[in-house]
Write a structure and sequence with these properties.
75 residues, mainly alpha, two-stranded antiparallel ribbon, elongated
């Protein structure tokens, strides 16, 4: 199938959707794990107290997890 001058296969689109759903599931599970590991309420620290350090830690965790998921998908 030709879409905007790019050849798109149904198998490639299906694989992308599946990998996206698996990646999102890993992110959600990882976020719940980090909330369980932290000795404080992450929601309170981020939104109520506006703790920048906790935001940096959560962001670093998300970037690290994204690198792992991308490496797993890429092979």
């Amino acid at each position: 199938m030709l879409l905007l001058g790019v050849v798109v296969s149904l198998d490639g689109v299906l694989a992308s959707v599946i990998y996206s759903l698996i990646g999102l599931a890993v992110f959600v599970a990882g976020f719940y794990v980090i909330r369980l590991i932290m000795p404080f309420d992450v929601h309170k620290e981020l939104e109520v107290d506006q703790n920048t350090a906790v935001g940096v830690v959560i962001g670093s965790f998300i970037i690290g997890l994204a690198i792992i998921v991308a490496a797993a998908i890429g092979g």
